Amino acid sequence: MELELSLGDSPAPVKATVAPTPVLTPTCMGDGEDLELVLGVRAASRDEQDNQTTCTQSSEEATQGEEYETRPRGEAPVESLSFPLFVPSAETGSANSEVCTRGFDVNTRLADGGAAAGRPSSPSSMQEVSTRQQVADQEAADDEDNGGGGARKKLRLSKEQSSFLEDSFKEHSTLTPKQKSDLANRLNLRPRQVEVWFQNRRARTKLKQTEVDCEHLKRCCERLTRENRRLQREVAELRGSLRTTSYPPLYGLHHLPAASTVFRVCPSCEHSKVVAAASESFSSRVFAGGTADAAMSSPAAGSPPSSAANLFGARRPHFGPFAAVIPPVLRRQPSATS
DNA sequence: CAAAGGGGGCAGTTACATCA
DNA sequence: CTGATGTAACTGCCCCCTTT
Q1: Whose CA is closest to A99, among A156, A166, A164, A160?
Q2: Nearest-nucleotide field for A334 (CA, C1')
Q3: Tell me, what's the pLDDT at A139?
Q4: Does the keyword Transcription apply (predicted)?
């Protein structure tokens, strides 16, 4: 049995201080327990997108006294973004998919007469949205009249907006100010909305990844526990054989070091601790008081450990090779310079 | 070099829309 | 009607960088 807990680097974070989102490569999940660690929200399918109207900015924007950059109404959206548009896929966020099928999106803004390019709208949906938008505008105006401190609106991004943001997120999980403003222009959103969407999207990705990591590590822990118990039984049996047999008949048991000096098993944590002969092994670095970081940084972390496994020859392939790499701390760490 | 200030990210939370 | 769920938006904090 080979165990390899390999958590790769995240493609997402740009800054070194941001905790990477690990990508698991669970090759240890044999015996039908392989984990498919595929994350990421897919973009809406073309069929779904054809079913909607392009949504524009809510007039509520005017009611929120904030630092958002103002953008001329009806300004043609930026068309030359580098992000892929509308990658076809079978799965889409169900919540957003509801928005336009109901013909209502609070983000849709018609005050500019739909002058912005790329805004196909059916007459019927336009009517309905127009009516609802008037209500929304009135409510926004009321809020403003009340000092703008009213209850915040729950805006739902259109499917097109979400799809485009998803595609952008696949390109880069963080935004430069220019990318933010370009996206906002393209989607007729406020830059703040784009920023918030990316923040929430990163949080969702991290949460999903954390759940996957936990599940994966749980399975690996269970597997290692079972393996450890099995090895302990084997060790006990071999010791019994040593006592009853003058010389080990098979497997080169004479290579087995004295149990009291070589092999210790922590009964509480069930971590094998190879003390002497296998002191150079990976497992000893992991379990013998060493930290996971030390194991990660070890040049041997990715290579098959030798001594512990080879102690027992080909009969004992189960002790290794494996590489246990603990997922990096999710909370961002202080920078190296500070 | 240190303090101040701004910008951006993240964790945690709230508020709202939607659905079963 | 109600609880669960998803998510947009907010708040507060921290870190990094630039400016003074």
Answers
A1: A156
A2: C15
A3: 41
A4: yes
